[in-house]
Specification:
203 residues; 0% strand; mainly alpha; globular
Length: 203
C-alpha cells in the first residue's frame, strides 16, 4: 500500500511537472486574477478533469474508447481547433484587461478553457492512459486504490500550488509587462501543441 502511494505520487509529479498548455493556463489565471479565490474555477475544473482521466485510465475504459479510430480523429480535430482559438484569445489579451474584477476572465471562460485543455488534448490523454493506466496494472485491490488516490491527490495539490504561485507573481509584478510576456508564451505553447497534434494525422 505504502509503495503504491509513493509510486503514484512520484509518477503523477513526473507527468504533471513539464511545462504544457494546462499548466501554463492555470499559472496564467493565478497571475491575472485579482484574488486567488477568483482562480478557483480553473483550478477545480482542471483537477476534476484530471481525476476523471486518471480514474478512466486505471479502469481501462479510455483504452477502449481511444481504440476506435473515428473517436481519435474527432478528438484530435476538436483539440486542434480549441487550442488554436485559445492561443489567439490569449495572444490578444492585454494585461490591462485584468486590472479590475469586472474585466478579469470570467468563471465560465475559465471552466470552458480549463476543460478543453484537459479533455481535448489527445497527447495528454494518451500519456495518462499509457503511463498511469499501464503502471496501475502492477497493483490490485487496496494497492490499486492507493496508487490511484495518490495520483489524483498529487494532481489537485499541484494545480492549487501552481495557481497560488501565479497569484504571488502577478501581485509582485503588477506593471503589466511580465503578464504580457506570460500571455505570449501561453499562446505559443498552445499553438505549438496544436501543430504537434496536426502532425499526428500525418503517417
Amino acid at each position: 500500500m505504502i509503495t503504491a502511494i509513493i509510486h503514484g505520487t512520484i509518477l503523477a509529479f513526473g507527468l504533471i511537472l513539464p511545462l504544457g498548455v494546462q499548466n501554463v493556463f492555470i499559472f496564467n489565471q493565478g497571475a491575472t486574477q485579482t484574488k486567488f479565490r477568483r482562480a478557483l474555477p480553473v483550478i477545480i475544473t482542471a483537477s476534476i478533469c484530471d481525476t476523471l482521466l486518471i480514474s478512466l485510465a486505471v479502469l481501462g475504459v479510455s483504452v477502449i474508447v481511444l481504440g476506435i479510430y473515428w473517436i481519435k480523429v474527432v478528438l484530435l480535430t476538436v483539440g486542434i481547433i480549441f487550442l488554436g482559438y485559445m492561443g489567439f484569445v490569449t495572444w490578444k489579451s492585454k494585461p490591462s484587461t485584468y486590472s479590475s474584477d469586472e474585466k478579469a476572465l470570467s468563471s465560465k471562460k475559465q471552466i470552458t478553457f480549463a476543460a478543453s485543455v484537459s479533455l481535448l488534448n489527445p497527447h495528454a490523454i494518451m500519456d495518462t492512459i499509457g503511463v498511469i493506466g499501464t503502471s496501475s496494472l502492477s497493483y490490485t485491490g487496496i494497492g490499486k486504490i492507493g496508487f490511484t488516490l495518490a495520483c489524483i491527490a498529487t494532481s489537485w495539490f499541484w494545480f492549487f500550488s501552481l495557481a497560488f504561485v501565479g497569484r504571488q507573481v502577478g501581485r509582485l509584478n503588477n506593471s503589466g509587462g511580465f503578464l504580457a510576456v506570460i500571455n505570449k508564451i501561453s499562446a505559443l505553447i498552445m499553438w505549438g501543441t496544436a501543430i504537434y497534434l496536426l502532425f499526428t494525422f500525418i503517417p
